[in-house]
Every structure is written in structure tokens, then in C-alpha cells.
Write a structure and sequence with these properties.
With 346 residues, this protein is of the alpha/beta class. It contains 11 helices and 14 strands.
Length: 346
């Protein structure tokens, strides 16, 4: 089979997806500039698949940026790419507010450049890493794909919505394109081997790495943003899914784009919401560590509750989340406790 190009393949979700692709017998080319990922993740990916019995994984790594058109042209000329899974981009909400031009340039401009290079090479199958943020702050759960994209609250979310529109327009203009828009909810967890996991640089932006870094002493306490929401305990409720389940969703989407044309969106979530304090208690149970926390004011733009209706992905892709909350917590703790400094290259 022709290789799959994975942009941002050394990142958190990308590295887990590369593992699943290799275990499924697919050749993979990773393109990553390592601005928010680690080359060590690629070495760990090779170790994971080797220990799983995949003795000769077909994995090629290219260091570079999706905005570099000559590099992309050379990559497509050198490899008979069948499909592109596109993760590459900047992803920190707060940073996007402070540096909007960097986000519009890297995420939107980079995606346009990638699609132009793909079109020139005759590669028109794409799986895009989108986000539930495209539903906007006014959407009420459970969120379904039939809902329109809404009012986003930060430049990061706006770039995801803009890219979805660009890709939809591209498919309308050229029916040879096939694009899967995967709207993630909240990926957490790590590979059960403990070899790869989430490795944020600096202070974590997301809940689970923050909790796990408190557990190992890298952070003193967890900040809980608001306890006066209309939820079970006053803290925000989100749909958390295991990163391995999410990675497998990309394989299902790759199969879909092989046989269909046009742009289609799917939620990847569990359909179940958990509050911040429920997540704290679940992690304490898995780790045996007490997680000190402090209630602080709400963050602007945060909604009370958000979870998916994942039925469409089940019907169309044959995909459903399989791994439960205790498994997510156990795998997070295994990764963090064995790798207290992440990949050790910050």
C-alpha cells in the first residue's frame, strides 16, 4: 500500500495515530517541525511497534514545516502518498489570543499551502484534525454534526472553523477531493505501554496533564476555573476520550476517504460528560495520590458543559470509543509516573 503522510506526526495525537497505522501494516511518512513536539516521540513510536511484534515498521520522518512549499513538493515527488492525515498546527488557546497572526499563518496559511501542494501532486484524500470548538460557545450538548458552526471564542477555534470551511469549499469546487473533518472532544490518556503520552511544554493548558503534573510534584496545585456552573458539582463538564480510541478513529476515516468524495464531519467523543472534580477523584483513585486544587474565577469563553453525540461516527465509520474512564486514568498515570519529565528534552 502507498504510504500515508501524517503532518504533526510527532505530537500527542499524531504519535498515537502513527502507532496504530504502523500496527495496521501501513507505511507512514511523518512531517513535523517539532515546534511543540519531540523527536524522542518518534524513537518511542518505533519502540512501541517493535515491542508489539512489528519488526520492520515502514516509517520515514521528514523535518520541516507545512508552510514550506518546495519541501512539500519534494516530499510528494519522493513518496507515492495515498492519503494525508493533517495534525500540524499551533494548539494553545491562550497563546492564540496573544499571538493571533501566528495562528492564522501557521494553521490556516499552512493548510492552504498543504492543499495546494497536494493538488499539484494529485493527492486529494485528506483527514483533518478539527475540534468541537467549531460549534461555538452557544451550542448546547449533546452536540451533533447537524448543528452549524457557531461563534468561536478564540483564534485557535476560529482557525479550525475557517479550515473546515476552506476544505468544504475545496470539495465543492473539485469533486475529486475527499475530506474527513474529525471534530475531537477532549483526548486524554496515553499508550498502555507507558512509552508515549502527552508532553506539554511549559505549564499545561489542558486538564489531565495539569492534574498528572500536580501528582508528580511538577505543579503545586490544580487551578479549577469556576465552581458555580449549573452542573453536578458546579465545575465544568467535558467529554473525555482515550487518545488511542481517537487514533483509531483516524484509521476509520482513512478508510472512508478511500471510497467517498466530498467533505464530511464527524464527532469523535464518548457521549458522556465528566466534571473537573469527577476527573480529579478518578485520577486520585488510579494514582493513589491526593490532588490539591484551588477554585479560581471562571475563564472567559468557557462553557458549563460540552459533550458529543457520537452516533454518526458509529453509523458511518464503524467507530466507537472503547476505553473507559478508569483506563484513561491508569494509562495517564503510567505515562506520567514513568516519565516525570516527559520526553526529557524541554
Amino acid at each position: 500500500m502507498n504510504p500515508i503522510l501524517v503532518t504533526g506526526g510527532a505530537g500527542y495525537i499524531g504519535s498515537h495515530t502513527v502507532v496504530e497505522l504502523l500496527l495496521a501494516g501501513r507505511a507512514v511518512v511523518v512531517l513535523d517541525n517539532f515546534c511543540n513536539s519531540s523527536p524522542a516521540a518518534i524513537a518511542r513510536v518505533r519502540q512501541v511497534v517493535a515491542e508489539a511484534g512489528c519488526a520492520a515498521p515502514q516509517l520515514t520522518v521528514v523535518r520541516g514545516d507545512i508552510r514550506d512549499r518546495p519541501l512539500l513538493d519534494d516530499l510528494f515527488a519522493s513518496h507515492a502518498i495515498a492519503t494525508v492525515i493533517h495534525f500540524a498546527g499551533l494548539k494553545a488557546v491562550g497563546e492564540s489570543v496573544a499571538q493571533p497572526l501566528a495562528y492564522y499563518d501557521g494553521n490556516v496559511g499552512g493548510t492552504i499551502n498543504l492543499c495546494q501542494a497536494m493538488a499539484a501532486a494529485g493527492v486529494k484524500r485528506l483527514v483533518f484534525s478539527s475540534s468541537a470548538t467549531v460549534y461555538g460557545e452557544d451550542a448546547r450538548p449533546p452536540l451533533t454534526e447537524a448543528m452549524p458552526r457557531g461563534r468561536t471564542t478564540n483564534p485557535y477555534g476560529t482557525t479550525k472553523a475557517m479550515i473546515e470551511q476552506i476544505l468544504t469549499d475545496l470539495c465543492a469546487a473539485d469533486p475529486a477531493w475527499s475530506v474527513a473533518l474529525l471534530r475531537y472532544f477532549n483526548p486524554i490518556g496515553a499508550h498502555p505501554s507507558g512509552l508515549i503520552g502527552e508532553n506539554p511544554k511549559g505549564i499545561p493548558n489542558n486538564l489531565m496533564p495539569y492534574i498528572s503534573q500536580v501528582a508528580i510534584g511538577r505543579c503545586a496545585e490544580l487551578s479549577v476555573y469556576g465552581d458555580d456552573y449549573p452542573t453536578v458539582d458546579g465545575t465544568g463538564v467535558r467529554d473525555y476520550l482515550h487518545v488511542v480510541d481517537l487514533a483509531r478513529g483516524h484509521l476509520a476515516a482513512c478508510a472512508w476517504v478511500q471510497d467517498h468524495c466530498g467533505a464530511e464531519a464527524w464527532n469523535l467523543g464518548t457521549g458522556v460528560g465528566y466534571s473537573v472534580l469527577q476527573m480529579v477523584r478518578a485520577f486520585e483513585a488510579a494514582s493513589g495520590r491526593l490532588i490539591p486544587y484551588r477554585i479560581v474565577p471562571r475563564r472567559p469563553g468557557d462553557v458549563a458543559a460540552c459533550w458529543a453525540d457520537p452516533g454518526k461516527a458509529s453509523r458511518d465509520l464503524g467507530w466507537q470509543a472503547q476505553l473507559d474512564l478508569p483506563q484513561m486514568m491508569a494509562d495517564t498515570w503510567r505515562w506520567q509516573s514513568r516519565n516525570p519529565d516527559g520526553y526529557g528534552d524541554e
